[in-house]
Amino acid sequence: MELATRMSRLGTETAFEVLARAKALEAEGRNIVHLEIGEPDFDTPRHIVDAGVEAMRTGWTHYGPSLGLPGLRDAIVEHVNRTRGIETNPAQVVVTPGAKPIMFFALLALVGPGDEVVYPDPGFPIYVFPNVTGTGIPAKELSVRLLEEAGVACLAGTAFGAGGEGYVRFSYANSIDNIREALRRFEALLG
């Protein structure tokens, strides 16, 4: 069987390459602040773990509804109505296993052949791309130095294309303390 040519373009996502290197440094005893992957810097709270275990013990081990569990969608509606000051209802809520699938689904629903889509490059909703051109260091070199010398894992903007030169990507799916520590280390590296 012959695969489609697009398959030859598949590779490892850069964030996971940086994560692997950061984990290797941690295995050597280094303290690393993880801003590369978009994953919170804390474990899942115990009550959530316990609820998941209890759900599995009581038979919640099969496919759920494609839009998400009704009780979860109801809770999301209640939270959004209370905290955002807008009225919504469960028919307007879809639960997905992350940000990428819902972004893909939204584009499929809204964009047709020939439509123009304007998208920030680089950009993603849980990341910030600070302009680092003032450092005089190319983005890739700076991201490597941040990891190897300062213990801050981030991505070079060039991981997202040539337009990313002069930027690094930091995930702000972290505690304020982690972000402050990363910025402190960034500043110390650049002196």
Write the layout of secondary structure elements.
Layout (H helix, E strand, L loop, with lengths): L13 H14 L5 E2 L11 H12 L12 H15 L14 H12 L16 E2 L10 H12 L1 E2 L1 E2 L11 E4 L4 H15 L1
Parallel strand pairs: 1-3
Antiparallel strand pairs: 2-5, 4-5
Helix pairs in contact: 5-6
Features:
191 residues; mainly alpha; two-stranded parallel ribbon; 5 strands; single chain; Aspartate Aminotransferase, domain 1; 6% strand
Gist of the model:
With about 190 residues, this protein is mostly helical.
* SS content category: mainly alpha
Order of the strands making up the biggest sheet? 2-5-4
Report on the biggest sheet.
Answer: 3 strands, antiparallel
- The third-level CATH topology of the domain at 1-38 and 121-191 is Aspartate Aminotransferase, domain 1
Could you report the average pLDDT, rounded to the nearest whole number? Answer: 90
User: How much helix is in the residues?
Assistant: 40-55%
Low-confidence stretches: none
Strand content is: 5-15%
CATH class of the domain at 1-38 and 121-191: Alpha Beta
End-to-end Cα distance, whole Å, is 56 Å
Q: How many β-strands, per DSSP? A: 5
What would CATH call the architecture of the domain at 1-38 and 121-191?
Alpha-Beta Complex
Query: What Rg is obtained from the alpha carbons, in whole angstroms?
Result: 20 Å
Helix count, DSSP H or I runs of 4 or more residues: 6
Helix-strand sequence: HEHHHEHEEEH
CATH superfamily of the domain at 1-38 and 121-191: Aspartate Aminotransferase, domain 1
